[in-house]
Each structure stands twice: as structure tokens, then as C-alpha cells.
Amino acid sequence: MLDPFVEGVRSIVQVCQLVILAPAALAIVAARGRWPGVAGAIGGVVVGGWLFVTNRFGAITDLELRISAVVVLVAALALGLGAGLSQERPATTITRAVTSPTATWAIPALIGLIVVQWWRPCVGIELGTILTAAPDEPWRQLLPTIGFMLGISIPLFALGLIYMVWRPAPALARRVALVAAVLCAVLAASVLAGQHGEIVSRLFQWSQ
Amino acid sequence: MEPRRITALVSLCLVAAVVGGLVATSGDDASTTATADAPTATVEPAATDAVDATSDSSNVASTDEVAAIPPTSDPDTPDLPNRGPHPEFRPVQEWLQTDATTFDDFDGKVVAVQFWTLGCHNCQATYPHMRDLYEKHGGDEFEIVGVHAPEFDYERDVEAIAAAAEDNGLTWPIAVDNDKANFRSWQDRRFWPRIILIDADGNVRYDHIGEGAYDQIDAAVGALIAESQN
Fold this sequence. Notes:
The structure holds two protein chains of two kinds. Chain A is built from eleven helices and no strands. Chain A is mainly alpha-helical. Chain A has one domain (2-207). The mean pLDDT of chain A is 87. By secondary structure, chain B is of the alpha/beta class. Chain B has two domains: 1-35; 37-229, Glutaredoxin (3-Layer(aba) Sandwich). In chain B, the strands form two sheets. A six-stranded mixed sheet of chain B has the order 2-5-4-3-7-8, with helices on one face. In chain B, strands 1-6 form a two-stranded antiparallel sheet. At the A-B interface, helix 1, helix 4, helix 7, helix 9 and helix 11 of A face helix 1, strand 1, helix 2, strand 6 and strand 8 of B.
């Protein structure tokens, strides 16, 4: 588990991991950096990673990609709505749902789980071993997969620590959360529009 | 400052130090090769392609395993079950560094089909090992076919592909698969790099995703060559 974890940590600087880290981080910020949101996002990434490597659902189709993008877009907007309504008394079922404590971790978890299915991983030695073996030996690759995905999730954990240090005023935290929710929704919209590959390509060329 | 905040700050610094140290030393560790370079080997989700990935019934990953090859004396030799005939190799834009015009020109040889792309850092990490493999086994009984399937538009440039091959000593035949027809039809989940070994009878015998397993691959090639000579 340690070697995959190390490889996961080392891979976070690669642009190919942005498809996971960017929306997951935005989801955490949209949840105002609270630890349930951090834990939910990391948990979603880990579970999503295991589903991905074991090929539980097969290769994602174009329709599935677009449907999942819609789900992420709605989830991001729900987080934003929750942040915006957090100071008000929830009056409807929807507003009660998005401002509930459950939403703080469940929505980032959902986003984390989904965006891993969009993943275009950089296949090093440890991940290559996992990907080769996992479809036939899913449970045997569980711990290595958890290790690798936890390694990738280190920036998400660091984001929670940043919020602990920063301790923004509630009003500021809400404003930042709203911006993050909008950005996450925009990112999902780009996937829905089929522009994700183009964005990654430009990021890659920029990074060079 | 509150104790909790101090603890969080210290923890953040520790995390940053650990991550920074691991990333900085990523080129030193022989067992891991991820670095700060740009996107490397990737999965290509079916959603980004026009071709339906699930329509190809001859896909490598979906073939049934038949009989396994008896173990050889080399302890690194992996199991080499017969997974059935390799998928159809579809016409490519161009062949480089070879007189071959189709994949059938390699019939009767053990073939290592490697899916790669020139911008892929993890693919680049395999170059020394592939060169060693070719130097050791290349000849009348073994061939490497590098199927270059671009991830980004700039990787479609045939001159750039040829230059990358020359600069890195990749002297084996290269199939320029700019439409990714073979990249998609040979893999249900598409990765770079990926090595598939085909025996002399045209059957798929070994499949490895990503870097690594070089000793296994070398032993597998040796075993398949020995099998073809019997």
C-alpha cells in the first residue's frame, strides 16, 4: 500500500490528475472547507478509484459522460445554494436538503466519485500493476488502490488544513464557496460540451 | 494563535514537505517514475472518441483464456494463457522504419505490440527497456510494433513521431495510428503505455498496462520464442 501511495503523491503534479483534483477541491471549497466535506470528497475519490480500476461499469460511454457531467453540475449548484442559504431558515424541502449536514459531505463525495470516472491517469508502475490485475482480482487490489487514491488526495487533505489555519469569517467563506460552486459547475459544463479533452490539451501544452 | 490553528499549520507544513520531497525525488526511485512533467500515459475514455469501443467483439480484454503455457525454468516468466487470436489490425496512416505495409507482414514472429505516444512521460520511461528487449531478442523470431496513437493534436505530426523515434533509439516498426482505430479496437479501456504480446501463431498471450514488469516481459518473450522453435 505504501508504494502505490507514494506513486499517487508523486503523480499529483501531473496535469492528468487535474480532472480529479480540480472539481474535488472546488467541491470542498464550495462546502466551506469543513472537514465533513473534505472527508466526503476524499472518500468519493477513493471509492470512485476502486470502481474505475476494477472496471465495474466498463468504459464510460459518451452518454454516460454527459449524464455524469449534468449530475456534477447540479451537485455543484446545490453546494452553492447551500452556502448561499446557510444563514437563512430553510423553508422548502430542497433548501433544507442543501443546507443539511449530510449535504456537506454527501455532495462532495458524489462529485469525487463521479470525476474519477472521467480520469485519464498517468500509468506508472504501481498504477499499471493495479490496472492490469484489478479487473480479475478486485479485492486483492483494494488496498493498493486505496493507497494510490489517498496519495492523489493529499492536496484535498491539505485544503482542509488550509481552512483550519485561515479560519475565514462566515460571510467570506460563503462568498468563496459560491465562487467555487460556480467554477465547479462551469467545469462540469465544459465536460458536458465535450471540451474537457481540449482543456487538458491546452493545460498540457501550457505546462510545457 | 490558537493551538488548533498552530497544529493545522504545522501539519500543513509537514504535508507540503513530504509531498515536495517525494516529488523532488521521483526521478531517483527505480520503483516509481512519476515526475513533474506534463500528462503522460493516460486512459482515453470512450466518450471522447467517435468509434464505439464496445462494438469490437475481438477486443483483447474480452477474449476468453484457453490453455496456459507450461511454466519454464525462468522464475520471472508470467503465466501466458492463450487468449485467442489478436484483434484485427486496422489500416494505419503510415508505417515508419519498416518495409511492412500491414500487420500480417509480421506473421510467424512473436510480436510485442506497444501502444505509445511521444508526449507520454510514462511511455518515455519504457524506452530503455524496450531498446534492451529489442537488442536481446530482435531478429527473425521477434519484432516490436510501436502503435503510436496520439493523445493531443500536436502528437499527430508524423515528422515529430519519426524524430522522437530516432532521438530515442526506437528502431522498430512504428504504426502511425492517428485515427486511433487500433488503439480503440485492441483495448476496451485504453491506456498508454500498454504492451500486448502475440505469439508466433497470432494469439494474444500477455498484456501489461503502464510501466514496469520489464523482467516479466523479457522472460515472456523468451518463453514465446522458445515455444515457437519447438
